[in-house]
Give the backbone structure.
Amino acid sequence: MTGEGSPPNGHDLIDVPGGTFLMGTDEGRFPADGEGPVRAVRLDGFRIAATTVSNRQFAAFVDATDHVTDAQRFGSSFVFHLLLPDDFPPTQGVAGAPWWRLVDGADWVHPAGPQSDLSGVWDHPVVHVSWADAAAYCEWAGLRLPTEAEWECAARGGLEQKRFPWGDELTPDGVTMCNIFEGTFPTSNTGADGYVGTAPVDSFPPNGFGLHNVAGNVWEWCADWFSATHPAAADDRPVANPTGPPEGAAKVMRGGSYLCHDSYCDRYRVGARTSNTIDSSTGNLGFRVAADADADAETDAATP
């Protein structure tokens, strides 16, 4: 295993200018998620990676640090049932979500279980990484996880209050724009978008800021603790650089994944959100890195 060509600073970081944008959505499909209300948020300029961290990049981190992920320590992680071989032994399911199987030996090196490896997927997003694993990678790389507000601002790509990073239509002019579940969830995925599991980190067209796969593919960890409520601005002024509550039980995840489907979980919408505990890992969960803006970076409005 080797992360050849992936030094700590080997990320394509995009400068996102500071300014004010409208965060959240009032669609309200999942009230407990706290997607709304729509609120004005002001951010300082920042930098964020064009893609999620790939298997190749994560391998460089492991080669350099001998990091052992939470999934490796626990000896198991969660794999979507359609990614397992037909003759795979019975495994423990998840109450209320039986399509998730707890598979011994599933981890970032074996994304579909112990019979799998990284052959052919080195440029796919690393998965089966917990928030703690992502934070350890960031510390090694001299970077950080994006705040939730930074993530959403960057994911919107300069568009205001659109459902997706490219607009309001899921498939404009019939063009597939992201990697999500197509077919009948959870029993039959047609793979019409070209993928049944993960896609390469730079697949599908980038948004207006140059970010790939901020809708679908894999969920992305953010720095913030999760809360379903949001701070109110004083005197109707935008909230400045929010970072979430000071503590909590779970961290924010954004972007949806290759398992999102309108009939079950359309959280590939840019205003959607969910959460998970810091030691949790699954086969559809990765992360993207960020950094503070360069000191001499120009500051303009985030929404043109």
